[in-house]
């Protein structure tokens, strides 16, 4: 983490807008903000955007304030309620599948029932696994797969790698054009896919879960690959002084 504060300081010194994106919808932006601050990261809460935030923004724009059957944690439920949504198990206008660390058979049963009757279906992210201190744990993609086997339906994704999350980030940063915008991340299926598919500068860091071998085998190629953010900082400083 030592290079991260220096990298962010360099962005601020150059007045380069930046935002933190997380596909993990199990916690609120406030919770992630507090974690980052406790790790010595200088930022504002508006610089944290979760896939849950992206989903809320999209659904409000597309559907107003629909009745939602939400499969999610209490934090995600609170975010939806604060945004003006009604959480409805019986007659929802859409189903939203989030990263629910307290998921139950009953929740999946209710979701499946609504999917069978054709209710619009969304998910905050497609990730198969989530990295924790205990190792890899099942993420939303596992439950997407199970519901697909049962109902034949797949959700519209509202977090990474969807353009929906790029739109949310661009709006939050006050940017109108994707020209010169970079996506920095360590995951091929979400971070790099979102960058490459949507025409962003895509920068893969090998300090997370992805190895160089995996990157070389992946069907999409990032613009740049660096071992860690410290090297990215060095390259940025060299470019700005050239």
Main sheet makeup:
5 strands, parallel
Spatial arrangement of strands, main beta sheet: 4-3-5-6-9
Question: What is the fold-level CATH name, i.e. the topology of one domain?
Answer: Rossmann fold
Strand percent estimate:
15-25%
**CA-based gyration radius:** 19 Å
Task: Give the termini separation.
Answer: 27 Å
Could you give the topology of this structure?
Layout: H1 3-13, E1 20-22, H2 29-38, E2 48-50, H3 51-63, E3 67-71, H4 74-82, E4 86-87, E5 94-97, H5 105-116, E6 121-123, E7 129-132, E8 135-138, H6 140-151, E9 156-157, H7 163-173, E10 182-185, H8 188-197, E11 201-205, H9 212-217, E12 224-226, H10 229-241
Parallel strand pairs: 1-2, 3-4, 3-5, 5-6, 6-9, 10-11, 11-12
Antiparallel strand pairs: 7-8
Quick structural overview:
The protein has 242 residues and is an alpha/beta fold. The chain has helices spanning 3-13, 29-38, 51-63, 74-82, 105-116, 140-151, 163-173, 188-197, 212-217, 229-241; strands at 20-22, 48-50, 67-71, 86-87, 94-97, 121-123, 129-132, 135-138, 156-157, 182-185, 201-205, 224-226.
